[in-house]
Amino acid sequence: MDIDQHIERIIHSAHYDPFQVLGVHFSGENEETATIRTFQPHARKVELLIGNGSTEMTRTREEGMFEAVIDRSTLADTNLDPYTYRFTIHYHSGFVETINDPYRFLPQLDADDQYLFNFGTNYRLYDHLGSHCAVIRHVAGVIFRVWAPNAEAVAVICNFNGWDGRIHPMRSLGSSGIWELFIPGLQENEVYKFRIRTSDGNFIDKSDPFQFYGEIRPKTASIVRDLNRYQWQDDKWQENKRTVAPYDRPLSIYEVHPGSWQRDPDDPDRFFTFRELAEKLIPYVKKLGFTHIELMPVMEHPLDESWGYQVTGPFSITSRYGLPEDFMYFVDQAHLNGIGVILDWVPAHFPKDDHSLGHFDGTSLYEHEDPRLGSHPEWGTFIYNYGRKEVSNYLIANALFWMDKYHIDGLRVDAVASMLYRDYARREGEWLPNCYGGKENLEAIEFLRHTNSVVFNHYPNTLMIAEESTSFYGVSKPADVGGLGFGFKWNMGWMNDILSYFSKDPLFRKFHHNALTFSIMYAFTENFILPMSHDEVVHGKRSLIDKMPGDLWQKFANLRLLLLTMWMHPGKKLLFMGGEFGQWSEWYCKRSLDWHLLEENDLHRQTMDFVEALNTMYLGNPSLWQQDFSPHGFRWIDLDDRNNSIISFVRYARNREDHLVGVFNFTPQTFFKYTIGLPSDRPYRQIFCSDDVVYGGSGANEDVIYTPVADPYAQAEYRTTLKIPPLAGVILKPC
């Protein structure tokens, strides 16, 4: 290809390496002649500045190609790259500016980083791709990189160049598929996109897959942002996290949608920023005694109604809630108050919005080309191609990014079941079997194992939590023994059973007794978290309090009993916002929780007090969390009294002298002298009762010391009698 053909490609935004034309090029027997070119389609005149002198460049093409031919010795220093020349551009509009030439800088991305990316193991990929403020050879600017291996050409478009894709074409870094360009003079907060020329000659404009920040919806451009300025104060928290494993520790999670937990009362359409939420949400969570906040996705997403689960910017904190530093402040303040932060993470799929990852370079790059593998029929989204090393690298680096840059303590991985099975939400003929003829998505399974292994290698005590609803083996078992390598798994079976049970009229609960007891059959097969999540209070499922049968008093008594049963059951805990005070309405993402209820009826405030007391009891008793995942931490006393709908069991700490006995009555009947078994001959006292009047109960509980009788009862060696209030649980502890 001769120089004219190269120039034609530059003019028509079709060149894979504009540096072959633009910038400095030497010729002559000893390369004594330097030809400097620049393409400025909006310029009336361009001057070349070298040292203190200037030379007007020759317009060689009407479209805006300018050229100057000079003696090499004229250049400032031939032993350095880049050469120290600049351009003064006189635009047709009358505007004049002096710039450094982007095309006088050598490639900056190390060959090893390119290799590791293509191999799938460049785990700090976010430090290399995307946009980064940089100083190269004493020149400040922004370096852009994007992966688009099948593109014919790629350009940076931004305010700086009037969104003209002809002005800043990028250079292909060969077989890596990465394109790069350093643009001198650009600064933080520059708004930009990538203009991609596809192999068929069409142009598409895409947001940066690695953007750290972006425009607020409905705008979709990326914004240059430096994430390294914030001064973290959480060293003590981080050190404790590195040294203390979470499995035998209390874990009580408050799940939050940051856009609807609370809004500005003076402007209900305005979201609180994360800095504002830090001043409101963190003290609230601390008072109630939760150990962690789990945030529904805070990555950039275009549609509020998706709740954040259709992510278009996996590396970008959503602009709805302020700046990246606002979220850093939120996390920092949580840690300073002893509260961990978990993020919902969505590697299962991504939306089909034109500006996003779909058909990124004109081909199915991040997704599968075959819709039977790459298109999700239930959600109308694309499915990541986990078998492509660069795609799996992109997602693994994204997981690490949130822990590195934002100090996040854990990820709750959404929709894991949809990743594990190729036939998920598909009918016969709509999916392709794996290479062995099965329905398992082997590439996704390997991706999840790889992700968990890498995360735990870098951040050993991270909370990696799977939302997985099937019986897939070993979700929370190590990858090297055939598991998926997660730390925890949501117990969806328990959740479905317990909510089904509580929705029944107490008169008929005896016919559904197994729903109370069956979960113990598998409670220790995984490291379970018991979830009462947002999914259970939307789409016609009704709020937790509204699921409960009976009159007003019974509904609140049932809710307290549900929560006490949950907190006493083996497994860590998660409760969605609003459940702690008995919100009547279903959750809706576009309005605040119904905080006014706390002023309208004492039962709502008393329920909140109950949750605070429940967490206090939980945190203060190792028997409720020290052996959550071991059968040694649980023992039935009586699971067979279905006629009275009463169960009782023991929770043990590692020191079996430290234990609690729970007795639960799921009917509105009061039992005045009910016989229960006890596991030791020590006297017992009541430490908690959900029927206490301070929580809105009837006060039918009693404050006495129970002396065991050495006479076996049910599955215990001793017995006693006690008064059991209606729709209530009583917790006993050895004196």
UniProtKB/TrEMBL annotation:
Tell me the subunit arrangement: Monomer.
Q: Which NCBIfam families match?
A: branching_enzym, PRK05402.1, PRK12313.1
**Database matches in HAMAP family:** GlgB
Q: Single Gene Ontology BP term?
A: glycogen biosynthetic process
Reaction(s) this enzyme catalyzes, per UniProt: Transfers a segment of a (1->4)-alpha-D-glucan chain to a primary hydroxy group in a similar glucan chain
What this chain does, per the record? Catalyzes the formation of the alpha-1,6-glucosidic linkages in glycogen by scission of a 1,4-alpha-linked oligosaccharide from growing alpha-1,4-glucan chains and the subsequent attachment of the oligosaccharide to the alpha-1,6 position.
Give the molecular function GO annotations.
1,4-alpha-glucan branching enzyme activity; cation binding; hydrolase activity, hydrolyzing O-glycosyl compounds
Top enzyme class: transferase
Q: Which Pfam family, an example, fits this chain?
A: CBM_48
Organism per entry: Desulfoprunum benzoelyticum
Which residues, if any, are the signal sequence?
none
The family annotation for this protein states: Belongs to the glycosyl hydrolase 13 family. GlgB subfamily.
InterPro entries in the cross-refs? A-amylase/branching_C, Branching_enzy, GH, GH13_cat_dom, GlgB, GlgB_N, GlgB_N_E_set_prok, Glyco_hydro_13_N
Q: Which Gene3D superfamilies match?
A: Glycosidases (3.20.20.80), Golgi alpha-mannosidase II (2.60.40.1180), Immunoglobulins (2.60.40.10)
Q: Is Transferase set as a keyword in this record?
A: yes
Active site: residue positions = D414, E467
Domain annotation Glycosyl hydrolase family 13 catalytic: ranges? 255-612
Question: What is the protein name stated in its UniProt record?
Answer: 1,4-alpha-glucan branching enzyme GlgB
Q: Which GO terms describe its cellular component?
A: cytosol
* Superkingdom classification of source: Bacteria
Keywords, A to Z, come to: Carbohydrate metabolism, Glycogen biosynthesis, Glycogen metabolism, Glycosyltransferase, Transferase
Q: What is its EC number?
A: 2.4.1.18
Q: Which pathway does it serve? A: Glycan biosynthesis; glycogen biosynthesis
